[in-house]
Specification:
The chain has 268 residues and is an alpha+beta fold. The protein has one domain. The protein is built from 10 helices and 9 strands. A 4-stranded antiparallel sheet has the order 6-7-9-8. A 3-stranded antiparallel sheet has the order 1-2-3, with helices on one face. The chain starts with 6 loop residues before the first helix and ends in a 15-residue tail after the last helix.
Length: 268
């Protein structure tokens, strides 16, 4: 049954505390609410961008974890609810909400080449009261202004937070993810790395040191999440310096139960 016209508005305003099992129509409506005007919904087939490009919702393929990283569809991208707010426990094995990124979707949103992405970037002053550098961020969907709102919130924090914020690890950087051919979210001007020193990244941990690690205060995470950014510290493959603009996951988090998490050590 077709959702009423008011569905997208209601979707953006209601918080649902009970578990919800979204169907394709729900997921596609979430995407339309998160990226207004970017595409049309083509039934349950997927999203049709200007020029007739169809990004399928479900490609019908069975995938292991490696395939989910390398060749996800929209259904895969939204398959792991993001645990909004203070998670409180370590992520379950391979629970990486946000790491399944369909490249065709992000290219259609932000630019199909480095030149196209660069044409839509704007410098944003990071922590201006503390003399921070400028970071290039996409102007698409107001990502740049969302980051400015994040920065305004971060500047209200006390001086004890400065070590987590300066110097930042960077913003736009057109590059593949380390150890892969997949483009980083930084390639689209939608990601920011805060200070590297007090951060933890799963690939930097010594072999055998398999425990989840984090030192980033929840106050910082909450400010980013309020503006539509997800945090890599909520991934099994943790990257605690990393934040990226993913409004669809934040929106879906309000309609989904938090994922099952497990304490203790994790196996690589």
């Amino acid at each position: 049954m077709k959702k009423p016209a008011s569905f997208l508005l209601v979707l953006g305003l209601i918080l649902v505390s009970a578990p919800v099992r979204p169907d394709p129509e729900d997921d596609l409506a979430i995407l339309a609410a998160a990226y207004p005007g970017a595409f049309e919904i083509d039934g349950e087939r997927g999203l049709r961008f200007p020029g007739g490009i169809l990004i399928p919702y479900d490609d019908g393929k069975e995938k292991d974890f490696a395939a989910l990283l390398d060749d996800p569809d929209l259904e895969d991208m939204l398959s792991l609810p993001y645990p909004l707010g203070e998670a409180g426990m370590f992520p379950a094995r391979n629970y990486d909400p946000g790491r399944f990124r369909p490249h065709a979707f992000f290219r259609a949103l932000y630019g199909g080449s480095e030149e196209e992405v660069r044409a839509r970037l704007r410098p944003v002053q990071w922590m201006p009261s503390l003399g921070g550098p400028r970071l290039l961020m996409s102007t698409r969907f107001g990502v740049d202004t969302k980051l400015e709102a994040v920065i305004a919130g971060l500047e209200t924090l006390g001086p004890e937070y400065r070590r987590y914020l300066l110097p930042p690890g960077g913003g736009f950087n057109y590059r593949p993810i380390a150890g892969s051919r997949r483009l980083s979210a930084h390639s689209f001007g939608i990601a920011v790395d805060i200070a590297v020193g007090p951060s933890h990244y799963w690939q930097w941990e010594p072999r055998g040191a398999e425990e989840y690690r984090n030192a980033i205060p929840q106050a910082i995470v909450a400010i980013f999440e309020k503006q539509g950014f997800i945090w890599g510290g909520k991934w099994y493959h943790f990257d605690t310096m990393h934040f990226e603009y993913r409004p669809e996951l934040i929106l879906k988090a309000r309609l989904s139960a938090h994922p099952v998490s497990q304490p203790g050590r994790r196996a690589r």
